[in-house]
């Protein structure tokens, strides 16, 4: 009886650990120095950077915040750009348009852009890559 109870306690403990989000085990916070992306030093600036095999479009949307999204359009994988006048992310190939949250505003793309958590920290951007 005791070995059976011990087995079930161990099993429950294992299942409890297994239920933790897998993403947290793989996600990594990486620092991108602003001196490597001078366009991001001012509000409205944007650039595309390669971060650990991910091509990311960074947009400085406010004095104290930055957005990070996948830079390839979800329609045909064209490289996108940011339009500071409209405050939209635009695909030059087929005209898809996205908001700064990655939501599709105009097709032909139907799938939103992947977002990466990002924040400003001193003279760096901290971006979480999973």
Keywords:
about 130 residues; alpha+beta; Rieske Iron-sulfur Protein; about 35% strand
Overall radius of gyration: 20 Å
Question: Quaternary state, please?
Answer: single chain
Could you name the CATH class?
Answer: Mainly Beta
**Count of alpha/pi helices:** 2
**Unreliable segments (pLDDT under 50, ≥5 consecutive)?**
15-24
Measured distance between first and last alpha carbons: 43 Å
Strand content: 35-45%
Per CATH, the architecture is 3-layer Sandwich
Can you tell me the CATH superfamily? Answer: Rieske [2Fe-2S] iron-sulphur domain
- Structure summary, number of beta strands: 10
Main sheet? 4 strands, antiparallel
CATH topology: Rieske Iron-sulfur Protein
Order of strands across the main sheet: 5-6-7-8
Mean pLDDT: 85
Estimate the helix proportion, in percent.
Answer: 10-25%
What order do the helices and strands come in, and which of them pair?
Layout: H1 2-18, H2 22-26, E1 28-33, E2 46-51, E3 54-62, E4 65-70, E5 81-83, E6 88-90, E7 97-98, E8 104-106, E9 118-121, E10 124-129
Antiparallel strand pairs: 1-10, 2-3, 3-4, 5-6, 6-7, 7-8, 9-10
Structural overview:
- The protein is of the alpha+beta class and 130 residues long.
- The chain has a single domain (26-129), classed as Rieske [2Fe-2S] iron-sulphur domain (Rieske Iron-sulfur Protein, 3-layer Sandwich), CATH 2.102.10.
- It is 17% helix and 37% strand.
- The chain is built from 2 helices and 10 strands, in the order H-H-E-E-E-E-E-E-E-E-E-E.
- The chain has helices at residues 2-18, 22-26, and strands at 28-33, 46-51, 54-62, 65-70, 81-83, 88-90, 97-98, 104-106, 118-121, 124-129.
- The strands form 3 sheets. A 4-stranded antiparallel sheet has the order 5-6-7-8, with no helix packed on it.
- The N and C termini lie far apart (43 Å).
